[in-house]
Write a structure and sequence with these properties.
Elements (H helix, E strand, L loop, with lengths): L19 H20 L3 E2 L5 E3 H4 L15 E3 L5 E4 L4 H11 L7 E10 L11 E10 L4 H17 L7 E7 H10 L4 H11 L2 H13 L2 E3 L5 E3 L5 H11 L13 H20 L6 E3 L13 E12 L5 E12 L5 H4 L5 E7 H10 L12 E3 L7 H13 L4 E3 L6 H11 L3 E4 L2 H6 L1 E6 H8 L5 H5 L5 E5 L3 H10 L1
GO molecular function, one term: histidine-tRNA ligase activity
Protein name: Histidine--tRNA ligase
EC number: 6.1.1.21
Length: 478
């Protein structure tokens, strides 16, 4: 190819490459989450990355724009297909398609990549992983409460302490009941919900402006408000900052009173099961999924603060959320099927755990590298590698064509703890040299001159070839 025709090596916008350390750490985190979900009796299931577009529905769980944010294409018979944007819509299709074979309620968990065709930003990617758990077929608040308790148990299984996280819950019915009680019209309801959702970021004064005529931000941009009167604004702020359920906020609204009873039933179960407000608590500012959820909604928030790489204070915020979505399966069956679930943002949670030192470190060592000193004796080196692997040691033979210096650089870049060396002299004696790269690096830091360095074979020892596996295992253990 000519230089002008060469493609530029670049990752697609909104996507990212993932290195070994994060992959292994994430796998261990997912294994812990899986153990908790399995302990609760949830079963694994998987759906494909691609669904027929009409099966995914008209909305995203956290968007109010119909048909937005989806990667779509047509197949050979002109059917529209889309990459899944979450794990819940494919589950609804699966349940509708297999309802006769599945138990009711159907309790399952799944993990996988999802795709959003949205504008990327800092920490916001077009491909990311979710880990979901759902109960389909139960209208009982017990199912909602169980999801919250399972999420709280998951955070502690991952090493977080009480006070470092909290599961917050609310109800869309309660929110709807408030708007009915205080005569907040449908035309401004969306603006009202969005304003409440900004309470943590803008405080009461900022939200009050958004509930009224509007707010101008620091850049000078103006956001039109909901246009509520003073009484409605005062009541909205009281509702959004309430720390306990109050029937007065939904008085006279059947929808609101139904939501109140659901949350009271959940609270009773939390108390009976020993989950205090330090783990799970009511929070009226939890909104979530404006066109998606139909009942209780919940969000897992990390409360601890830490410093990022630039020394700035970071508050992690939400790492997962969910709620009741009783209308999703009905799109296929025409009959309402109650469902509730919780979704963890895998990458966000892993990043948070890593920053606070709670990410589970991988126990996988880089491989021991057997150097190739004589290309005519590659069979000998391969037998060493096989013996090490048979002994439970992760090992590889250098597969390149470079000399010893480049091979040592390769082993160093691989993070190899040891290298095995056997030249002609060692072969004649029936010996091998084992060099500890970690210890050698430590010893080298105390050497003052190049001559002193050259005169020493740092952290290197000779053993009979027959004792290679035992010597390597001993060195690794040390």
């Amino acid at each position: 190819m000519t230089k002008e025709n060469r493609p530029k090596a670049r990752v697609a916008k909104g996507f990212r490459d993932i290195a070994a350390e994060e992959i292994r750490g994430t796998r261990q985190m997912l294994a812990t989450i899986q153990r908790v979900y399995e302990a609760y009796g949830f079963e694994p299931v998987e759906q494909p990355f691609i669904e027929y577009t009409d099966a995914l529905g008209k909305f995203l769980p956290d968007q109010d724009r119909p048909n937005a944010g989806v990667f779509s294409f047509q197949d050979d018979d002109d059917q529209w297909l889309s990459l899944r944007y979450d794990l819940t819509a494919p589950l609804a299709r699966y349940v509708a398609e297999n309802s006769q074979k599945l138990p009711t309620p159907y309790r399952s968990y799944r993990q996988g990549w999802v795709f959003r065709n949205e504008k990327p930003g800092p920490g916001r990617f077009r491909q990311f992983m979710q880990f979901d758990a759902d109960t389909v077929g139960s209208a009982s608040p017990v199912a909602d409460a169980e999801v919250c308790m399972m999420a709280a148990d998951t955070m502690e299984a991952l090493g977080l302490q009480r006070g470092q996280y909290v599961m917050k819950f609310n109800s869309r019915k309660l929110l709807d009941g408030f708007t009915e009680t205080f005569a907040i019209g449908e035309e401004v309801k969306l603006t009202w919900l969005r304003a409440l959702d900004k309470l943590d970021r803008l405080g009461k004064e900022g939200v009050a402006l958004l509930l009224g005529e509007g707010r101008k931000d620091e850049s000078g941009d103006f956001t039109k408000g909901a246009g509520l009167n003073a009484k409605q604004i005062e009541a909205s702020l009281a509702f959004a900052t309430a720390t306990a359920l109050d029937p007065a906020f939904v008085s006279g609204s059947k929808n609101g009173e139904d939501g109140l009873r659901d949350l009271e039933a959940m609270q009773a179960l939390f108390a009976a099961a020993g989950y205090g407000a330090d783990r799970i608590r009511y929070d009226s500012s939890v909104v979530r999924g404006l066109e998606y959820y139909t009942g209780p909604v919940f969000e897992c928030e990390l409360l601890m603060e830490t410093k990022d790489e630039d020394g700035r204070t970071v508050r992690f915020g939400s790492v997962g959320g969910g709620g009741r979505y009783d209308d999703l399966v009905a799109r296929f069956t025409g009959q309402q099927v109650p469902a509730t679930g919780f979704s963890i943002g895998v990458s966000r949670l892993y990043s948070a755990l890593k920053l606070v030192g709670k990410a589970q470190e991988s126990a996988t060592l880089a491989p021991v590298v057997v150097l190739v000193m004589d290309k005519d004796r590659q069979g000998d080196y391969w037998r060493m590698v096989q013996a090490l692997r048979a002994g439970g040691v992760r090992a590889e033979m250098y597969a390149g064509t470079a000399g010893m210096k480049a091979q040592m650089k390769y082993a160093d870049k691989r993070g190899a703890p040891l290298v095995v060396i056997q030249g002609g002299d060692e072969k004649a004696k029936g010996e091998v040299q084992v060099k500890d790269l970690r210890l050698g690096s430590e010893l080298a830091s105390n050497i003052a001159s190049r001559e002193e360095y050259a005169s020493q074979r740092l952290a290197q020892f000779s053993v009979p070839e027959a004792d290679l596996v035992a010597a390597v295992k001993k060195a690794l253990a040390q």
